[in-house]
Design brief:
Elements lengths: L3 E3 L3 E3 L6 E5 L6 H18 L3 E4 L18 H15 L3 E4 L6 H5 L4 E4 L7 H9 L3 E5 L9 H10 L5 E5 L2 E2 L5 E2 L4 H6 L5 E4 L5 E2 L8 E2 L4 H11 L3 E7 L13 E2 L3 H15 L3
Parallel strand pairs: 3-4, 3-14, 4-5, 5-6, 6-7, 7-8, 8-11, 11-14, 14-15
Antiparallel strand pairs: 1-2, 9-10, 12-13
Helix pairs in contact: 1-2, 1-8, 4-5, 7-8
């Protein structure tokens, strides 16, 4: 397995601690987003887990044209740069167009390719050419073994700092299901795998003009993935998910984060046993 470097601070993969990527779905202003990051970082430090702050600067694939999308590229990257400086942790956010790659790479430690865009060759290739760590979310429509083609695109750009994320597969209309076999299948492709335990309980478009979710199952998904074997865990967290401006129904309450991670740590010792 390739051991992946993140921000010059962490190593991800077999033999290294489980990395946590956590934060609000979308940036909700500097102060509020920073407060969420501070709590998440403190919990991870207490438990001895490497922490990466995550938040989107633009939610480009919202159900409705009227939905909140975030501060946008310029303001959003400025907020992420300040949070990175304040917390002294790496940051990750998703990019949607090739024009965003260069400015995003100046701030982000991990460039994230959204699931819907994982087959977009130009986006994946240009992101990989930056040399930054790339996190590609497996499309809801894609078989796990087909991620080998995504890997080839990244490697052809000369980059081997790659993470592969499971976030559920389409199961009929407005439904996702997670095939836990996808984690060892993708891991066998030679790169660390990530479980997105919050988007995997999403109900896409389930509320008509927005997506629903079943956040009560987030701990179950996280524990199950840890038992199968993962190298990082992706969680959208919020101090008050019901008031979150995006993906509230599937975000985890910050008050529940420490217990979830405590359970996952215990299971991880078995799940990644060589």
């Amino acid at each position: 397995m390739h051991i992946v470097s993140v921000g010059g601070k962490y190593q991800v993969g077999q033999g290294h601690p489980l990395m946590i990527m956590a934060g609000p779905c979308v940036l909700e202003g500097y102060e509020h987003s920073l407060a969420i990051g501070k709590r998440a970082k403190a919990i991870c430090e207490k438990l001895g887990l490497p922490y990466v702050f995550k938040a989107s600067f633009d939610k480009a694939n919202r159900s409705s044209v009227h939905s909140f999308r975030g501060p946008g590229l310029k303001e959003g990257l400025a907020i992420l740069a300040q949070i990175k400086k304040d917390l002294q942790v790496p940051v990750v956010s998703d990019i949607h167009e090739t024009i965003q790659v260069e400015p995003a790479a100046e701030v982000l430690d991990i460039l994230q390719i959204p699931a819907f865009l994982c087959r977009q060759t130009d986006l994946v290739f240009q992101a990989a050419k930056t040399g930054k760590t790339i996190n590609v979310k497996k499309g809801q429509f894609l078989a796990p073994w087909d991620m080998k083609n995504v890997i080839t695109k990244v490697e052809e750009a000369g980059n081997h700092n790659l993470l592969l994320t499971e976030r559920g597969a389409s199961f009929g209309y407005n439904a996702l299901v997670t095939d836990m076999r996808s984690l060892p299948i993708m891991r066998a492709l030679g790169y660390p795998v990530v479980m997105d335990a919050t988007h995997s309980v999403q109900i896409p478009g389930g509320k008509g003009t927005s997506s629903g979710g079943q956040r009560q199952y987030v701990p179950h998904m996280a524990r199950a993935a840890a038992a199968v074997g993962i190298d990082a865990l992706f969680l959208e967290v919020h101090d008050d998910p019901d008031k979150g401006l995006s993906d509230g129904p599937n975000m985890l309450a910050l008050d529940n984060l420490e217990q979830l991670l405590t359970d996952v740590i215990a299971i991880d010792k078995i799940g990644r046993r060589e």
